[in-house]
Batch of 2 targets.
Target 1
Amino acid sequence: MRSEPRLTGELVGLVMAAGVGRRFGSDKRRQPLADGRTLLATTVAAAAAAYPRHYVVLRPGEAPAALGLAPDTPLLSAPAAAHGLGASLGDAFRQLLVCAPDATAAAVILGDMPWLNAASCVRLNARASTTAIVIPHHAGQRGHPVIFGRRWWPELAQLKTGEGARDVVTRHRHAVVTLELDDPGIWRDVDRPQDLPG
């Protein structure tokens, strides 16, 4: 029986925050939550707990401080963000191939997921490998983070349009590892003001 390649390098977190979020009615990334932090800052803090090495993906020219993030937040730029999440992923993975040569897998996290649970991320990370695509499930729904082994990064780097990496996942079903988690935070996000934490 063939064994999976062991994880020999770091896992990198990618917080995707270059979208426009039209359904919210304003820039939801700047929305303050009960503790005063912005929605994006809350998500990034949760991601940082599970992925000490992480990048936030923003549109060109956006300043982290304007979004409630630390000025030295590591950034990747998504100049094609207007063409959808797939285009932003393509931009991010093209840069990641260069700036993270020692990383063996990357966790894709949506920037509007303030309920992200570091413990769930740790369980997903334990299933990661250079060739796996690790996807969490809860109550019959897929969620995030989705962890892509480095083998799939060049293909992700070719994305130019679309709603995400669904086509890449579909083409490589044999590589998909699903993990059932008792955590609705893997798919709870904020699309409209009524979705905000109470």
Target 2
Amino acid sequence: MKNHLPFGRENSIQELMTPDLQFAFQIVAAHKRTVNGQWSYPEHYHTMFELNMVLDGEQTMFAENSSFLQHEGDILFIPPSVKHRSEGSSGNETMTYFCLHFDIDDLTLRRSLMSMQTTLLPTGNPSSAGIRSTLERLIRSLQYAQTGLQRDKLAFLSDTFLMLSALTNWTMDEGNGELHGKEASENEVSLAATIERELRSASISERLPEERIGIEKMAARLGYSPAYCKRVFQRVYGMSPRQYLTGLIVRQAKLLLINSELTVEDIAYQLGYHDVSQFSKQFKRWMNLSPTAFRKLTK
């Protein structure tokens, strides 16, 4: 019996196909701020990456037992979970800076970014020119925060994609894949990638999200302890297995809600919830919006 091939593949000699891409790139609380000479920011850390660019004056940032003096145009890249604090210009001079916190759940790019230490990118550094250019564009499109106009929002979104491109190019130019200060062996990287594939499969399960992680069974099947699996995944990708799985489920929920032909009940069932109210409550915890409210925003 003749196999029925997808349309267009009969008599094909060669084919190249790109992998499917689906990821989230998140920018949070980007802000431009001018401060006086007495300003300082206490030590803190967060789960996101940070780009901090001085626009006028000087700033001293303290991170990873080092100090980084930033002049006008200098950018500091800070990975997640790195404790840091900052001080403004000496004397009574004012200082203006732009701070951008971002996150990415594409694990290839995330691991590349995790391999970069806290890094000072001085003005004139060719490898960071793309990052500097896109930060300047984002600063100009901050007017969207004031106007709320669709055109300004589209400009901000366009500049966001340019930022993603610039970060990718920077890691390819400067990164070497080594996780500084928290080295991962080839076996650990391979194990983390295996866990990721299992989590991706779990994200489309019909079981409830809180039942899908199955790290104990997964670890037993792979021959490791659950604690070791969690630790390796965190070390390689900078997030826990549960955080990654939750991100996949949230993304899938949002994509399904954009499809107006599906009811909220349909979506809840597809995501493993057998009680729509339970899904609605969980979605509101994730997004601070009900599924219905989120759907209205996408129309």
